[in-house]
Amino acid sequence: MWLYTGAQIVAMRLSAGQAWAKAAAIIGVVSLLAVLAGALLNHSTLRDRYPRSKPRSGR
């Protein structure tokens, strides 16, 4: 999603004749951080330490 949004922002800035490299770099870093956070949260150490709770049954 971040990469799609970044491509749209770059395309809009290019069509408007504005600088686009800084916007692309910011979106690139944000998308990289999102991927890194997802990888860390799916790491086996965290899954072992914080197991999923079982859903509660109805009343």
Describe this structure in words.
By secondary structure, the protein is mainly alpha-helical. Helices cover 71% and strands 0% of the residues. The chain contains three helices and no strands. Helix 1 runs antiparallel to helix 2. The protein is elongated.
Residue fraction in strands: under 5%
Radius of gyration: 19 Å
Order of helices and strands: HHH
- Biggest beta sheet attributes: none
- Runs in which pLDDT lies below 50 for 5 or more consecutive residues are none
Short description:
This protein has 59 residues and is an all-alpha fold. It has 3 helices and no strands.
Write the layout of secondary structure elements.
Blueprint: H1 2-16, H2 21-41, H3 44-49
Features:
59 residues, mainly alpha, 3 helices
